[in-house]
Amino acid sequence: MPRVHYLNATYGIRSWLLTTDHKRIALLYLAVVTFFFTLGGIFAAMIRIHLLTPEGALVSPETYNKLFTMHGVAMVFFFLIPSIPAILGNFLIPMMIGAKDVAFPKLNLMSWYIYVLGGCFVLYSFFTGGLDTGWTFYTPLSSIYSNSAVTPAVIGIFINGFSSILTGVNFVVTIHTMRAPGMTWFRLPLFVWSHYATSLIFILGTPVIAITLLLCGVERIFHFGFFNPAMGGDPILFQHLFWFYSHPAVYIMILPAMGVISEIIPTFARRPIFGYSFIAASSIGIAVIGFLVWAHHMFVTGQATYSALAFSFLSYLVAIPSAVKVFNWTATLYKGSISYDTPMLYALGFIGLFTIGGLTGLFLACLGLDIHIHDTYFVIAHFHYIMVGGAIMGYLGGLHFWWPKITGRLYPEFLARIAAIVLFLGFNLTFFPQFILGYLGMPRRYHNYPPEFQVLNVLSSAGASILAIGYLLPMIYFVWSMRYGQVAGPNPWPATGLEWRTASPPPTENFEHTPVVDWETYDFVNRPDLGLATKPAPHLAPSHEDD
Amino acid sequence: MSEHIVSPTVYVIIFAILIVMTATTAAVAFVDLGRFNIVVALVIATFKASLVVLFFMHARYIPGRTQLVIIAGVFWLAIMLSLTLVDYKTRRPESEPAPALSSMTTPAGYFAGS
Amino acid sequence: MHRTGDLFGQYQTLEQQKDSATLGMWLFLVTEVLFFGGMFLTYTINRSTYPIAFAWGSNTLDITLGTVNTAVLILSSLTMAMAVWSAQTDKKRLVTGFLIATLILGCVFLGIKFVEYSQKYEHHLIPGHNFDLSYHTEGPEGAAKLQEAFRQDPGLTAHTQLYVSLYFAMTGLHALHMIVGAGLVFWLILQSMKGRFSRSYNTPVEIIGLYWHFVDIVWIFLYPLLYLIDRHLK
Predict the structure, then answer these.
(1) Which of residues 63-82 of C touch B (CB under 8 A)?
(2) How many Å lie between the alpha carbon of B107 and the closest alpha carbon of chain A?
(3) ipTM > 0.90, yes or no
(4) Is residue B38 part of a domain?
(5) Which domains can be identified in chain C, with CATH numbers?
(6) Contact C162 A178 (CB under 8 A)
(7) Judging by DSSP bridges, how do beta strands C3-4 and C7-8 pair with one another?
(8) pLDDT, tens digit, for every residue of C39-98?
């Protein structure tokens, strides 16, 4: 381990709270993001305990409404949206492109403070009356009738939005202007491409949720009436404004995880990724097409059939780039030299669970079927397969993959593999029964249910307890590893990115000298320095036909 | 540094055009063009905005990548406005009654064989 | 990251720094386009649903003050652009002069807006506070027009309140952006008085100029949409 690195270069709380080092800012985010994940997880645990019995086992109906709302708000806005971009993106993007830092380091720090400030408002809302409108804040419940602490919550989410926006601007400018010599666009790691696409969504989408929540809050305080039917306003307008952002937001949550998978799979299959340019293009494709589909959340609001048809068709279309990625990852595995380290376990789990989540999205995009399964547990299962089975597995896989780089230490591999398997099993037990429940007609956001649904609900809650263990184990062993973990060295896997060519943990300026790039990404073939035991497959070795 | 310096003469001419167009749009507002009042007003406003973007904000002289940023922003606003309007304009007007439900939607109607 | 002269530590060259700052500001302005855009969407939907009420509400606005304000902002864009030109041609005292002119014009705009808002209060046109549609309808001719409008739209009171709410929301958000802009220009004046800006370093003037022009553009659209609806009918 190097003597001086970014963690010990300067000491004291001020050196952390006033840092402009992107790596330290990433860790500041890690701390707060983990807090919100835990909070959201506690709400989820309470929901699953409550749903053990048909009449509801734990809380009153009003409190139940608050539980699922606060679970959603904490998880969506304060965990899933920041997680990979603000932690792994901030830490890695400058290193992956060979830069010393992002384009606007002080703005980066400000983004973190804005995130914390937004979080404080939302916590204030949670602890002074809670929130019972659903994370979707539909009007006029949120703007007029709800007696919960809506105003501080929308202020908090509004503020948090600017954290996203500034991060997005920072990433786009950094990727455009700060690349090292020789780092052309098509030599960028796919992790960078997916964060570029995510940043496009940050920039184009987040301002709309900002104005939407601002209008909702203004209506609540000043009684303006834009969304109030009694005053001539229109609740459907709120839904259009809300979903214009919130649908692309789900791509904010999944694209970075896809970027992580694109880094893990080549490393643990020891093969260049299949179809690099298609994966890069599909990231941009998802970001763009994802803006055209939002009204599929509103199929039952009285849309004209042809309008609904257009949005349904576009929703099917947006699945294509995602499928391209799944095919390419799978093709990368073919004839690869595969090892099942923990990051790879998460990546493989991602591919399977994301596929199920994505395919069930197509069920929902089908107009006739959506009439029956809209607002049921089918929807909940669908998006949890993507958010948890996809995004969170990507997040954990990424944390494990880059943990040696971030801390200079290895986590305990055997225990980590156990945790990954426990998580995978617990996840499926929690959410697969929910597909069936939804299909059988159990509505979402209900505090009770007919007795014939109890068995499936109990299975789901049992799964949730196993899933919780799967999350707790990494929290424990990651902390343990920071003190007692084996020292990692610069490139333990080994992997091919620029970030692995510098020390673990890296120095504050990332590289001793600015790298000059003259190789392609994921080039396992021409890297004798990686010390790979296996020879590359014959069809991958450089061809000598033209010698 | 390749910096294109726009001359003050250009700025003053653009300013004059903007003022003239402002007076024009105000005057035209008092003329009855029916549905086209809003069209004319928006065309003039877009023209004025374009002048500000191209000359005052130097968009004529910046690299193509930044020009793409501007176009993307406007295009995305157009997406939001147009697709939302598609939904609004295709909905049934409130004065029109909903069509009668087919008898197939209730069990009795379904099994009555109609 | 340390700063050596004008160059911040994460950059290799001043050109890279200026490129980054400019691209960053344009991307931020795109977010502002979408931010205001949400309100323009609300306006569009509401106006197409309640054309009579929107026309009625628009005619309660003072078109003279609105037009003067538009001209004031356009002039302030000219002075801002001239401030950038002065920096690019090393005329340091002119930079300060034009920036001060821009700030003064911005304050004139805000002052006129304050007058307009007070007028709204005097004429009972604040939504929810004794809202009274009969402003501008003195005499039998005015009363007849009001009656005709009510016939076409029975919910005229509520719908005109929607218009006025939107007026306050949109011009209020715009005014907030003007205040931020004024603050930024004030900071620029302080820097400029120390001789900070020159041919080789004028990035802050350029990018704050971009923000200022954007706020002007928002008003260029707000003016006809709010002030000029169906003026020919009055």
Answers:
(1) 63, 67, 70-71, 74-75, 77-78, 80-82
(2) 16
(3) yes
(4) yes
(5) 27-233 (1.20.120.80)
(6) no
(7) antiparallel
(8) 999 999 999 999 999 998 998 899 999 999 999 999 999 999 999 999 999 999 999 999
